[in-house]
Amino acid sequence: MKRRVGILGGMGPQATVLLMQRLIDATPAQDDADHIPLIVDQNPQVPSRIRFLIEGTGEDPAPTLAAMARRLQMAGAEALAMPCNTAHHFADTIRAATPLPFLDMVAASVTAARTHAAGDTSIGILGSPALRRIGVFDRAFAGSGLSPLWPEDEAALLAAIRQIKAGLPRDEARATLHRASAELLGRGARVQLIACTEFSLIANPTVTGALPVDTLDLLVGLIRGFALSE
Amino acid sequence: MKRRVGILGGMGPQATVLLMQRLIDATPAQDDADHIPLIVDQNPQVPSRIRFLIEGTGEDPAPTLAAMARRLQMAGAEALAMPCNTAHHFADTIRAATPLPFLDMVAASVTAARTHAAGDTSIGILGSPALRRIGVFDRAFAGSGLSPLWPEDEAALLAAIRQIKAGLPRDEARATLHRASAELLGRGARVQLIACTEFSLIANPTVTGALPVDTLDLLVGLIRGFALSE
């Protein structure tokens, strides 16, 4: 019997659908029953993390996230996962809300970075400038011997995220990502975390010589590992 | 405030993801909060409908579906929907399990067929032979003045479903669908329901002269209508 994972979703809704699609794609299946059971709270109305954390206005999302965790537990979830790096700022609130294990995408990113680092000391992060400012990755990497390195041109990255969200052709966004990837590689960050779901949608997001590690794929791995182990 | 719809999902998991993706695509959004909240029970372990209904072996899926409906209600769902035509055989069980409204994809198909019929008396159905055998659409069309018409070559349709599920290139499956569509059109069925999620994945599933109506899109419409009305 496979164990059911609860998804704190909707941040944004497309990230949640992408996670579900990748779970299907990662599962060799002869029949429906081979796939992994989920209970998904697709809640696009979680108060804006950016507004609360960066702009200092708006409602605190923490109580909503705690309530979602409790509802997922009531609905049969045996572990929790959240396909949004920024919202991992509230991981402790989610952990405290239920006794369920929390499958931590940011912690998994640090583990993956250490695995691939091979003597490197800097890990590139291709994500939203908001993610940099809230310090989720800086705190997670503390004590790991690795430092997160962020691209200089924040405005270009933000513009690329907006272009992808708006459904525009992805060539321009990929060109922006490649410039950021080349910059990070030049500054010594060979391992590069894809830490933004919009960037997860871009094929070949990094330049030759860089090693891309998609945080969403790491979460897929955690969910599969939990669901398929007794 | 948007009302939250509970999804009895996982039959198969890809159909559920496709429904969620189409809901996102159908929603003009400036921000996450513009999207529709869902609570999704992605349960690929619902006992096989085919095995129980057609082969006469295996576990009855009805108790599992009723339990899913109750769990979705506990998790905050205000209505229920199910992206699987075959499983609508159990619609009454689901209706009886909670006081929530059930957004009925098969009933919506009959309504859409009547709207588009314009004097036609036959409605073509491009779906699995199993769907034909359980009689879900025959019962739904009873008394409507319309008769469902099914393609003759059931083996070809089944093979096309298997090809799509296996991720094979879709040209061959589309060719099969076009032969079935041309046959239905020749027999007088201009309106053709796409009543199988595998076929919903095929662009341009019908021949010129036929009017395709995708049942999954009808469910998207029902969910949007419910979620956005007070």
Description:
Two copies of one chain form a homodimer. Chain A has about 230 residues and is α/β, with parallel strands linked by helices. Chain A folds into two domains: about 5-105 and about 220-230, Rossmann fold (3-Layer(aba) Sandwich), CATH 3.40.50; about 105-215, Rossmann fold. Helices cover about 45% and strands about 15% of the residues of chain A. The first copy, chain A, is built from eleven helices and eight strands. Chain A has helices at about 15-25, 50-55, 60-75, 90-95, 105-115, 130-135, 135-140, 155-165, 170-185, 195-200, 215-230, and strands spanning about 5-10, 40, 80, 100-105, 120-125, 145-150, 190-195, 210-215. In chain A, the strands form two sheets. Chain A has a four-stranded parallel sheet with strand order 2-1-3-4, sandwiched between helices. In chain A, strands 6-5-7-8 form a four-stranded parallel sheet, sandwiched between helices. In chain A, helix 4 links the parallel strand 3 and strand 4. In chain A, helix 3 (about 60-75) packs parallel to helix 4. The first copy, chain A, starts with a strand and ends with a helix. The interface between A and B is medium-sized, with 34 and 34 residues.
Topology (SSEs and partners):
The structure is a homodimer of 230-residue chains.
Chain A: E1 5-9, H1 13-25, E2 38-42, H2 49-53, H3 62-74, E3 79-81, H4 91-97, E4 102-103, H5 105-117, E5 122-126, H6 129-134, H7 136-141, E6 147-149, H8 154-165, H9 171-186, E7 191-194, H10 197-200, E8 211-214, H11 215-228
Parallel strand pairs in A: 1-2, 1-3, 3-4, 5-6, 5-7, 7-8
